[in-house]
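User: Predict Thioredoxin domain-containing protein's structure from this.
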Amino acid sequence: MPGGAPPKKSKTGLVIGLVAGGLVLVLVAVAGVVLFLRGGFGGSGGDGSAVSADGLQVQQDDGSVVLAEPGGTGAPVVEVYMDFQCPPCKEFHTESGSLLDDMGSSGEATVHYRPVSIFATQGGTMAENSLRGGAAAIVAAEYGYYLEYQDRLFDAQPAEGEEGFSAEELTSLGEQVGIDDPEFATRIDEEVAAADAEVNGGGAPSGSAVDALLTATDAAMARYTGTDALAGVPAVYINGSSVDPFTTDLQSQILDASPGEVDTEPR
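Assistant:
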């Protein structure tokens, strides 16, 4: 953030920075540290299924979502890491979101959406917005509406430094995509409070979607090494190998890849 305080280093070894003057990846780095992962996802809200009505979206045990043809096999696995407060992630979603959704729905690929919060340690509105948006997406996935909800989140992405993703707005976005359970609003209120506690208080409660989001962020940093190390968001991996998210031949790279395996389990 131009003119602001220098980037903070998190307890998980993330160093985060933004570069002004054009679209760039939001970079992260790990420098010789051990990552201490939080506990697993313990959310129990939603309608109990964590699967979309068409069976294509299936929430995983870490809060992420796999988009795939039910019963389909032999497709490459495309992992997508994004932060809903990240402008380049919004740009990537605008450019390639429909392509990935179509490929996952048709069985050409297994698309694994893995939201993270790279701004969690930055403090202030950036951290709060990042955690609120990511946690709300995880809750929406419990109802089987992750894809629809992430579209609305990116449409509503707050400007840098501007407070956004209020409980009222996040609840309204859920209603817009078809979530009509009154419990959704209660869950969102709880997650907004958890995000605020993480940024301004003693930390997010264990088992909350905010906690799951932070765990996923730590795990993503630990999962890949060498040339495949997570170097920024948006980040795209095909069968565990990183690719340029803004490449012009993303579709052909996916179609040319061998079958892969998802490394998580359904909830």
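The helical segments are 87-106, 124-142, 146-155, 167-177, 182-200, 209-223, 250-256.
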